[in-house]
Design a protein that fits this description.
Radius of gyration: 20 Å
Distance between the termini: 17 Å
Strand content: under 5%
Number of helices: 4
Length: 75
């Protein structure tokens, strides 16, 4: 899986290749950072949801209950 930023970088390289008239994938892998060197700082769904709830203090109790049920049903 790649992050949104990585996808945008890849798309940018691919668009540049199209404009240059070369194959879409030429040089694509050489221009990107090695994902093994990056730290994984993407939050889990639970972490993101907990943060959301902590910042949205004005939500109705019924809304929170519904959200809690939906989140807990996910694999």
């Amino acid at each position: 899986m790649i992050t949104l930023t990585e996808a945008r970088e890849k798309a940018s390289i691919m668009m540049a290749n199209i404009k240059k008239g070369i194959h879409v994938y030429d040089g694509l892998h050489e221009n990107l950072e090695d994902p093994k060197d990056k730290t994984n700082n993407v939050p889990t769904l639970q972490e993101a949801y907990d943060y959301f709830k902590s910042t949205k203090t004005g939500l109705a109790e019924g809304t929170i209950t519904t959200y809690d049920r939906r989140i807990s049903c996910l694999p």
